[in-house]
């Protein structure tokens, strides 16, 4: 790897591992543009930690007058001078303060890592190379915080994932009282998790009723008796409160009311004699459902498709307010156990989503200040890829979607894993690097922000909770055309690690931090219009019992697109596939297909030849855009100060909500930095102060203060007239 040190003053490309080196080394030559002074190890020693993953940090940095080159102009590794055998020794000294390689704090933390991974881990073993993903890392940090009360950093552990390094954190960090999650009894009224609040806000904005619908399919081999399937579905709803929680609103915002269990609507279809197109039609009808979370219990519907003797498929539609990718794995396991006659052995969840929501609020109170400062710094000057599509946006987002699907060839799926392992990176980082290349080429911006879902399941009690326990993190990656794909993957891994280490902040506050950082976005559009989502590691795709086997068959097109473009890398029981779920108002099928094929193509080429410069990777040009006109915008209005009581009230409310000093009657809520979550808070304030019911959608349709004030005034007068008539 020769790119990592090119931006160091007075340094040129590095060469990896010299002869006899006990650890990774980097030979350094002074840059040709150097002016005065020799490059010293002390000057360079801190830089690799900033730009390279822990496993690529060199243990030795010997300087040479000139790197030997091959005839092709590349560093000649075979001609590098030997590195002294003692050069890498200090890398092992850091565990001394932790009680030695086999004792003290490091040994105890290694035992916790072993518990999480299910196999032995030593104090110097790299957690990620032993199978530890980001969720497992979060669980280790949570365990360490609980046991020691130390204020250890997940970001630092991801950057240096060894028990010894984490032990050093424990010994030098301060202490905190970390919250825990527990089951609380109440009257059935519960708080919503942060993601549930985001999804509820999305529903208030969107004109598409099915905007939060998700759908997937499982295969059943063995006992598929209709009554047994129905009982299994109903039992699943009874165990998991999220599927039977009604959403209500008051002056403080949305909250949940847990309702009694109700049967899952189940239809049955014999599709054995149907054509492939007819089968697809049945599945599509089952998938494209719309729920009303204020009225519908449960938030799940199903269709049982008979495909053969003792063989069937189950198409499931759920509302994302009650479900996520990890929840689908719980469903696979519990469906198998129930159909196998072992439902009585299923343990009840230790906690329910309302308990988790309370835990989140306590955790946010501890971490919010530091995480908000991080995001404001991380997103300074960022420009998310709002221009990936040239199509104009509608005034009120519609969120209608479609999907393009590409199977990932087995050879590529294997190569992806092998390359990730050899590079010390996760498949997610490799995919993120490939997506970055495509977006950077299509937008002409090498500074790219992509949304990456992060699970909030760091405690053992959360493993069996069915609910959307995740958040969307804006991962920012910057590249140059001469950066190799392997180097870009390392950068993507670092960026992901930084983001994951600061995930304990409500989505609304991440959005506020982005606004403070100068991120300007179209109103009604998510901070991250492009998202990369991989099936959670550890979520089962197959569950086998004595009488039945349940197999995950992948996601279905529910007809919605919560983001402008979401790349879904799904592992099923039989293969891996990549889906692009796209907003049909922003992309047509041809453009979406080209975009997905470009992503798969870069992934294929980058994994096969990781030394290729990103600028040399083949990316298809976007299809010629149909002339679409200018982005819709509000007509220009002359400046006017608030003149009525309602206008003055709204102006004061906007100042408080948006953090601005003055608001004119001619100002637009979204031009001042308003978001859907801020609009929700505004509607609550209007109701509490004036008794006027105002929807978030109305705020989007009438964002100018004077227009909105006129509607509020009309409704307030109408309410007074009704009161007079009732007297």
Automatic annotation (TrEMBL):
SMART domains: PKS_PP. The keyword Phosphoprotein applies. Residues 100-174, 641-716 form the Carrier domain. Residues 1-24, 65-103 are annotated as: Disordered. Its cofactor is pantetheine 4'-phosphate. It comes from the Bacteria. The keyword Phosphoprotein applies. Pfam families: Condensation (PF00668), PP-binding (PF00550). Gene3D superfamilies: ACP-like, alpha/beta hydrolase, Chloramphenicol acetyltransferase-like domain, Nonribosomal peptide synthetase, condensation domain. Keywords: Phosphopantetheine, Phosphoprotein. This is Acyl carrier protein. It comes from Streptomyces pseudovenezuelae.
């Amino acid at each position: 790897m020769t790119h990592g040190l090119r931006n160091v003053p007075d340094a040129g490309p590095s060469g990896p591992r010299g002869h006899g080196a006990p650890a990774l080394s980097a030979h350094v030559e002074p840059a040709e543009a150097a002016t005065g002074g020799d490059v010293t190890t002390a000057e360079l020693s801190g830089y690799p930690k900033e730009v390279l993953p822990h496993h690529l940090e060199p243990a030795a940095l010997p300087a040479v007058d000139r790197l030997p080159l091959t005839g092709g102009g590349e560093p000649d590794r075979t001609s590098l001078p030997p590195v002294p055998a003692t050069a890498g020794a200090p890398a092992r000294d850091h565990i001394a303060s932790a009680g030695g390689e086999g004792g003290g704090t490091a040994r105890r933390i290694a035992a916790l890592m072993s518990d999480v991974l299910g196999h032995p881990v030593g104090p110097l073993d790299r957690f990620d190379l032993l199978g530890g993903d980001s969720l497992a890392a979060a669980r280790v940090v949570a365990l360490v915080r609980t046991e020691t009360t130390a204020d250890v950093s997940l970001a630092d552990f991801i950057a240096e994932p060894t028990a010894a390094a984490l032990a050093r954190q424990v010994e030098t960090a301060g202490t905190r009282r970390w919250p825990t999650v527990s089951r609380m009894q109440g009257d059935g009224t519960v708080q919503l998790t942060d993601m549930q609040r985001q999804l509820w806000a999305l529903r208030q904005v969107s004109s598409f009723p099915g905007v939060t619908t998700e759908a997937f399919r499982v295969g059943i081999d063995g006992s598929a008796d209709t009554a047994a399937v129905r009982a299994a579905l109903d039992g699943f709803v009874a165990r998991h409160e999220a599927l039977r929680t009604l959403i209500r609103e008051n002056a403080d915002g949305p909250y949940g009311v847990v309702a009694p269990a109700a049967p899952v609507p189940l239809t049955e279809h014999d599709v054995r004699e149907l054509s492939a197109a007819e089968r697809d039609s049945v599945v599509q009808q089952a998938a494209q459902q719309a729920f009303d979370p204020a009225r519908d219990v449960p938030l799940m519907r199903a269709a049982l498709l008979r495909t053969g003797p003792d063989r069937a498929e189950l198409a499931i539609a759920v509302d994302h307010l009650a479900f996520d990718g990890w929840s689908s794995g719980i469903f696979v396991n519990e469906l198998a156990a129930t159909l196998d006659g072992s439902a009585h052995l299923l343990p009840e969840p230790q906690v329910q989503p309302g308990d988790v929501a309370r835990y989140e609020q306590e955790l946010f109170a501890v971490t919010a200040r530091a995480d908000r400062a991080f995001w404001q710094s991380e997103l300074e000057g960022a420009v998310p890829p709002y221009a990936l599509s040239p199509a104009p946006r509608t005034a009120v987002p519609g969120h209608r979607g479609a999907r393009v699907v590409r199977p990932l060839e087995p050879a590529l799926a294997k190569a992806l894993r092998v390359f990730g392992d050899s590079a010390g990176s996760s498949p997610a980082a490799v995919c993120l690097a490939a997506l970055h290349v495509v977006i950077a080429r299509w937008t002409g911006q090498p500074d790219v922000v992509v949304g990456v879902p992060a699970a909030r399941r760091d405690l053992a009690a959360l493993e069996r909770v069915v609910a959307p326990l995740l958040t969307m993190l804006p991962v920012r990656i910057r590249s140059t055309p001469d950066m190799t794909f392997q180097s870009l993957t390392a950068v993507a891994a670092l960026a992901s690690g930084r983001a994951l280490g600061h995930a304990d902040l409500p989505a609304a506050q991440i959005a506020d931090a982005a606004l403070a950082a100068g991120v300007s976005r179209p109103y009604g559009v998510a901070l991250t219009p492009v998202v990369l989502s991989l099936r959670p590691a550890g979520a089962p795709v197959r569950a086998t019992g004595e009488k039945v086997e349940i197999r995950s068959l992948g996601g279905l097109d529910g007809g919605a697109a919560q983001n402008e473009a979401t790349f879904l890398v799904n592992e099923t029981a039989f293969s891996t596939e990549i889906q692009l779920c796209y907003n049909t108002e922003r992309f047509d099928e041809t453009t979406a297909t080209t975009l997905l094929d470009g992503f798969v193509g870069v992934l294929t080429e980058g994994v096969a030849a990781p030394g290729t410069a990103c600028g040399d990777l083949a990316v298809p040009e976007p299809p010629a855009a149909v002339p679409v006109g200018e982005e819709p915008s509000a007509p220009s209005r002359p400046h006017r100060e608030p003149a009525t009581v309602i206008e003055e009230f709204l102006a004061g409310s906007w100042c408080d909500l948006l953090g601005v000093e003055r608001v004119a009657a001619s100002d637009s809520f979204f031009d001042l930095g308003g978001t859907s979550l801020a609009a929700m808070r505004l509607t609550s304030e209007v109701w509490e102060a004036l008794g006027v019911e105002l929807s978030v959608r109305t705020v989007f349709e009438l964002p100018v203060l004077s227009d909105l004030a006129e509607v509020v005034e009309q409704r307030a007068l109408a309410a007074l007239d009704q009161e007079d008539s009732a007297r």
